[in-house]
Amino acid sequence: MSQSSSDIREDNERLLKAYIAHLRLEKGLSDNTAAAYSSDVAKLMHYFEDAGSGVLSLSTDGLHCFLSELHDMGIQPSSQARILSGIKSFFKFLKIDGRIEHNPATLLEAPRLGRHLPEVLTVEEIDLMEECIDFSTFEGERNYAIIETLYGCGLRVSELVELRISNYHSDEGFIIVTGKGDKQRIVPIDDVAITAIENYRSGMRACVDVKRGCEDIMFLNRRGTGLTRVMVFYIIKQLCERAGIKKNVSPHTLRHSFATHLLEGGANLRAIQQMLGHESITTTEIYLHIDKRRLRNEIMLHHPRYKQH
Q1: To which H or E segment does residue 187 belong?
Q2: What pLDDT score was predicted for residue 80?
Q3: Which of 175, 201, 225, 274 has the most Cβ atoms closer than 10 angstroms to its Cβ?
Q4: Mind listing the pLDDT tens digit for each residue in 86-116?
Q5: Which DSSP symbol is given to 4?
Q6: Which entry of 22, 64, 142, 156 is annotated as an active-site residue?
Q7: Is 95 a residue of the active site?
Q8: How far apart are alpha carbons 54 and 6 in whole angstroms?
């Protein structure tokens, strides 16, 4: 039987108090250090409360989803590593205290502190994921539309779940996306994604009773309310497993794949920056190292010193 949001919050508050007491009394940590650890754990708890999940039932995949979101939010790797340290300490406490049987945080790895490009899916791998979808169901049509929108528009998962029907302009071929800091940007949307969305919305009208206040939300669950970021993570993860893809994939992987494939196809870095909603071009430049051969060929072709006469 699933818990209500209020029950989950009460359980989380009790667990957090017990953990703080453990840090102070048994670990002998200072009040400031204990507060820092508990603050990081509270972030984790709040993240999953919206999805109706308590921390005692979290899996390693769920924790990976949370860590992926930290990266998506632009939190520095050093801060991600600190938060992960607090999470590992918390779940170690839960295991020692007998509140969980298995520790889902054991295999979590701290992010590398240098800049690096996360996993990228090939076009063929994305096609394999889509081939595993059951299009006879409402969820199947919706999940296909989700993949095509994430990959075709390069959205963050938070931008996807917040996408509004009123900001979807299929006739003109663009969507208005609300990104970090509530900044809006116009993003082109291709015909494949438009068709997928239209098919999903057509099927949704026949089988979903949309709840009051959710009428303008693009992607809904069968209960007629908006999807959570965690739910989108599980959708992507499950499709990758069905497709036999062994990479560590999250919704953000589709965003990275979008940018990578654009650059490989010859797109201008500034255009990619605008599509992704990066404030600084240096954030987008992380993709440059993926295609050094193409960049070298461009120089060989256009630089006067390399032109063949």
Answers
A1: strand 184-188
A2: 82
A3: 175
A4: 899 999 999 999 999 999 998 887 665 455 5
A5: P
A6: 156
A7: no
A8: 11
pLDDT at 192 over 90: yes
Q: Which of 142, 252, 256, 261 is the catalytic position?
A: 252
Tally of helices (H runs) and strands (E runs) in the chain: 13, 3
Catalytic residue among 180, 185, 211, 234: 180
- Name, of 28-42, 52-66, 231-245, the range with top average pLDDT: 231-245
* 156 part of the active site: yes
Task: Please state, in angstroms and as integers, the Cα–Cα distance from residue 156 to each residue in 40, 68, 209, 230, 296, following that order.
Answer: 22, 11, 27, 13, 31
Active site residue 180: yes
Contact 38, 20 (CB under 8 A): yes
Q: Whole-model pTM?
A: 0.64
Residue 242 known to be catalytic: no
Residue 294 annotated in active site: no
DSSP letter for each residue of 148-186: HHHHHHT--HHHHHT-BGGGEETTTTEEEEE-GGG-EEE
The question of whether 252 is a catalytic residue gets the answer yes
For residue 264, report the phi and psi dihedrals to the nearest 5 degrees: -60, -30
> Residue 219 and residue 150: Cα distance in Å, rounded?
12
In order of 45, 67, 199, the CA distances from 160 in angstroms are 22, 18, 17
pLDDT at position 227: 93
Catalytic one of 22, 142, 229, 255: 255
d(CA 139, CA 66): 23
Q: Residue written as tokens 């989380």? A: 12
Residue 162: pLDDT band with limits 50, 70, 90: very high
Calpha distance 251→218 (Å, rounded): 17
For residue range 18-32, list pLDDT tens digits in order: 999 999 888 888 788
Side chain identity at residue 6, one-letter code: S
Task: Write a three-state SS string for 250-270.
Answer: CHHHHHHHHHHHHHHCCCCHH
